[in-house]
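Troubleshooting log. The previous structure file for this entry was overwritten by mistake, so regenerating from the original sequence record. Sequence copied from the archived sheet and checked twice against the printout by T.R.
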Amino acid sequence: MSRQDMDLVLSDGINTAVHFIEKSGEFFPFGVVKTNKGEIRHIQAMLEDPRPTSDSVCEVLKVSLREGGIAGDYNTVAIVSHVELTDKETGHMVDAISISIDDKSSSPILCYVPYELNHGVPIIGDIKAGAGSRIAFMN
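Regenerated output below.
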């Protein structure tokens, strides 16, 4: 079940980020969780700063997700954010959706989904995945 949960959170995170990009051209980092009741939920960080840095939003999300993981409220968590990557072939900067996923029963993963805007419509590239870091579960 854990790999399926991770795939579900990944898919939801990508779809939600694409929706925000289509609507606003950008998005603030947000969390996606699968609860212990099987529900998918989105988590936002509320900060006083009207334009906080992505790093500060991610730090607040990590604290919240860790608390939910320790309390047993979540089975799978993810932080979704925008990053810029350097294309190894061209050396150009590329926009990407970053999704860091942690699951209570599986190893964490980090995924990148490059995209480019074509007349305001995001064109999604291939998902790149690798080893990630723990967010909520310390096993």
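The chain has a mean pLDDT of 92. Archived copy saved in two places this time.
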